[in-house]
Amino acid sequence: MKNTFFLLLAIISFITRVTAQESLTQKALRFEKIIQRDHMREGQLVPTIIQVVEGPKEFDASTQEDFCFNTGRYVTAECFRYAATGDNLAKQNAQKSMHALLRLEKVTGTPGVIARAFKHSINPTIDEEAFFFPHEWHQSIVMPDYRWLGDLSVDQLNGWIIGLTDYYDFIADDVEKNKIMKAVDRVMSRILNNDMRIIDVDGKMTLWGNLSPNIPHESLNALLSLSNLKIAHHITRQEKYAVKYNQLINEFKFHEEAALAKVVSPKYAINRSDDGLAIDALRMLHKYEHDPIILEHYRSSLERHWILLKDANHAEYDFIRQALYPGSQSIDQNTLNDLNQFEITKNKRVTFMRSTSGPVRLLAYWQSSPRKFLWAYWFGRYHGFITADGKLNKPEIKNEKMVFVPAGAFIMGSDMGDKDESPQHEVLLSGFWIDKFEVTNDEYKNFDSSFTFPEGKEINPALVTWEQADAYATWAGKRLPNEEEWEKAARGTDGRIFPWGNYWDVTMTAWDDASPVGKVSPGASPYGCLDMAGNVWEWTSSWYNPYPGNNVANPAYGEKYKVIRGGAEFNNRSFFRCAHRYYLPPDSKIVGYKVGFRCVKDEK
Predict the structure, then answer these.
(1) pLDDT of residue 153
(2) pLDDT, tens digit, for every residue of 62-81?
(3) Cβ-based burial of 308 (10 A; exposed 0-12, middle 13-18, buried ≥19)
């Protein structure tokens, strides 16, 4: 017994030394061999395999309901591998699994219906009783020696369509492109013809198949609807998909729902398993969408995910954000550590499996697939974030402190707010630069060494009077923005209500007391300014006066008060609107009004 113990220690020590010495490329290639040897079922990737020691051998795979999604993700990983290395083995692996994705539709015998999984069997097997819903297994009528698992969900569709699309873009020849185009068209036409619902062979919407704007749905599903339609239009070039995509945006505001796809609170409602679905859908939308206003909402969605993901150090998410926003500073050594520390899990345990005749005892090894590692690693290699020898190639980041607002007209004011906001009117401005963030305590102290602030608040907004703000701006070679410039920088040219769009969500704002600047990236304005709704009020250079055409008398008008903008903590959300105006005397030190500022400078 003692000898056996020491032998096990020696084996563990040997494995540890080997894995510690291998490069990330060697690790990836080792994982590729394991996937092909253990986790492949006729091109389908099995996320968790079961190696039975005692019990029915039919129990060879867990989570059969996720074959479709995982196969699609594996195809994408091999596409990035092929694009990064030109390795023909990667192309062969991708091709084999791409055909498995196509067979997932063929096996159902109904055009446009996709299976979750298929297997070679002429009769029901006992393992069908243990996972998912046994009644969803069917005998194929077009592939008689096969059985298939139905009730496709939006996540499985996500993996299927994106896997085929990446293969289409990176590898496919003309014949393969035609096959993929026809398959995507059959599937998406069926969904389109059924009010954006996934309809199974029984004519019913599947359990998790709701992509429709006309029945209650999750915001995540709005995001997936847009991604699927954008992909379908890209591959088929059929205008019906573009028409539906535009309808979901213009009529049903799905782009605004997409921005809120990530649930960030309460904690019990946060589903981390949905992150991969949303992030990959956003990757595709950023690739095929070119309207800058729509892209702003997709950026907001990505940033809301980033609120919870930025400290998790998931290489996949770090790499995607860095690829989509090169100036985002998303990758660091922790990203590389995630890959270095990743290892396949394999556990031996006794499990009692469900069956109609009662629990079935199973002694087996359960082994997880390294698909997530391969996806992240080859994506990182493709984008140049990791070198061939496994080193982090961190891009040089420019620290942009000002953003440019181009010359042109914009819509100013509002006819639905306070009377001093009306009439809504068009204003023509020259181009100008504006600070991306509010001026911080640290920055202000560089100007005025006598300025004090609480310890630990170095990067929080400097709370000052108008005279102090104006003096700083002059010292910095800049000036305070007038309220026309401030409002354009906040809302862009489309007359939106808030910097991020026409919907309210508290996660888009810095709601607490004078937060560190730039803390809430999802709420950025069209030009990239942060904290223009919430955090602290901001001084402008403008005296509080009526707009042209406003004949409502107000004793506060005149050269007595300076306009402040943006709202602050615990204000009514209406105060966070881009058009909202308020005012204070230039020397105000009223404790209840936390007022900071940002600066501008002319284009030339």
Answers:
(1) 97
(2) 889 999 999 999 999 999 99
(3) middle
Domain 402-602 = CATH 3.30.1240.10: no
Q: Answer yes or no: is pLDDT of 4 > 70.
A: no
Q: Which amino acid is at 14?
A: F
Number of H helices, E strands in the chain: 17, 20
Buried b (16+ CB within 10 A) or exposed e, 288-307: ebeeeebebbbbbbbbbbbb
- 316's tokens: 């996949």
Identify the burial level of 574 via C-beta atoms within 10 angstroms of its C-beta, where 0-12 means exposed, 13-18 middle and 19 or more buried: middle
Q: Which two tokens stand for residue 25?
A: 């490329």
Single-letter residue type at 138: H
Side-chain half-sphere CA neighbours of 492 within 13 A = 18
The domain locations on the chain are 2-210+310-382, 402-602
Question: Taking a C-beta distance cutoff of 8 angstroms, is the pair 224, 281 a contact?
Answer: yes
Span 28-56, pLDDT tens digits:
999 999 999 999 999 999 999 999 999 99
The whole-angstrom separation of Cα 115 and Cα 200 is: 9
Instruction: Single out the residue of 241, 214, 213 nearest to residue 228, CA to CA.
Output: 241
pLDDT in tens, 405-436: 999 999 999 999 999 999 999 999 999 999 99
Rounded to 5 degrees, φ, ψ at 420 are: -75, -5
